[in-house]
Design a protein that fits this description.
By secondary structure, the chain is an alpha/beta fold. It is built from 13 helices and 13 strands. It binds pseudouridine-5'-monophosphate and manganese (II) ion. Catalyzes the reversible cleavage of pseudouridine 5'-phosphate (PsiMP) to ribose 5-phosphate and uracil. Functions biologically in the cleavage direction, as part of a pseudouridine degradation pathway.
Length: 333
């Protein structure tokens, strides 16, 4: 049967999605098997700005039915800032770069859409399944397609129980092999932020604070950790990215950490109280592996009655806007 448990690997029923999703005329396949929406392919071919967007936040990180509306708003924000959005997911086994309206609705609404990290891409593709892609998997596919900028909410990282569970998001290692600029609001505050920053240093990942030396705390503007590098404009980010590429570092990502606007952040006291309860509930639940992050995010959205959701929406929209401006700055040579 169809799994009601989100994020677990269960073979998808091929053909359950009525529309056959044929290759649209004009789609290009730069790498065998990638399906690129014509609008995105045209923009890439013409050197116009494109912003990759992930789909795990839509399918497994935001509550339904708000998630579909938010997914559309994220795309709208990229467009408003002058770039073409390319939301990425695997549909009918095809890694898809840019989703048409119908496919976006499917990804947001279907229980058959798994959560795929990089290591899940091949099995999902081989089985003709459907999957939302994590930051790591999205970055990989976007990089393959030639996209240079990617917006998300918060990166995965080192979980607080990692000393016992060894749970560190595969997003971190993915950043070492995908040469794009990743705009995020730091790493999710459910994580061990200090440990994650240490791992990013070990992995040689460049991290820039946007308008701040304070590393953002996802739902909170400031995680309490300091960053060495601060940039203040999209042009400055583009300068760093060009230097990064000129130095032969272009195979790894540059992370731009963009805080949620202060006025939109969660109340820090509420945040800390809910987090403590969320971690206790996690320990009691026996939830493991890739179901951990969706469990914690869902706990927050439910228990804060929308306060965490409001912050999440504000930060992702801000990141979409900044990513589009960076993509534009990068197209000016
Ligand atoms: N940021 C959000 N919401 C999310 C995620 C990030 O605002 O749902 C997702 C991303 O797809 C990220 C994933 O890659 O959580 C990390 O999961 P894990 O901890 O299992 O690696
Ligand atoms: Mn994990």
């Amino acid at each position: 049967g169809v799994s009601e448990r989100r994020g677990e690997a269960e073979p998808a029923r091929p053909g359950a999605y009525a529309t056959p999703l044929p290759l649209a005329p004009g789609s290009v396949l730069p790498v065998n098997g990638l399906r690129i929406l014509p609008e995105v392919a045209d923009a890439l071919a013409a050197g116009r700005p494109v912003v990759a967007l992930e789909s795990t936040i839509i399918a497994h990180g935001l509550p339904r039915p708000d998630n579909l509306r938010i997914a559309r708003e994220i795309e709208g924000r990229v467009r408003a800032a002058g770039a073409v959005p390319a939301t990425i997911a695997v549909v009918h086994g095809r890694p898809s770069i840019g989703l048409d309206a119908e496919t976006l609705e499917f990804v947001a609404g279907s229980r058959e859409v798994l959560k795929a990290g990089i290591r899940d891409l091949a099995p999902v593709a081989a089985r003709g399944g459907h999957a939302a892609t994590t930051v790591g998997a999205t970055a990989h596919l976007a990089y393959q397609a030639g996209i240079r900028v990617f917006a998300t909410g918060g990166l995965g990282g080192v979980h607080r129980q990692a000393r016992d569970s060894w749970d560190e998001s595969a997003d971190l290692v993915a950043l070492t092999g995908c040469g794009l600029t990743v705009v995020c609001s730091g790493v999710k505050s459910i994580l061990d932020v200090g440990a994650t920053l240490e791992r990013l240093e070990s992995l040689n990942v460049t991290v820039l604070g946007f308008g701040t030396h304070a590393f953002p705390g996802f739902y909170l503007a400031d995680s309490g950790h300091r960053l060495e590098w601060r940039v203040d404009t999209a042009d400055e980010v583009a300068d760093v990215v060009r230097a990064h590429e000129a130095l032969g570092l272009g195979r790894s990502a540059v992370v731009v950490a963009n805080p949620v606007p202060r006025g939109d952040q969660m109340d820090p006291g509420l945040h800390d109280r809910v987090l403590e309860r969320a971690l206790a509930a996690l320990a009691d639940s026996g939830v493991r592996g890739k179901a951990v992050t969706p469990f914690l995010l869902e706990f927050f959205h439910r228990e804060t009655r929308g306060a965490s959701l409001a912050a999440n929406i504000a930060l992702i929209l801000g990141n979409a806007d900044l990513a589009a401006r960076i993509a534009r700055a990068l197209t000016i040579t």
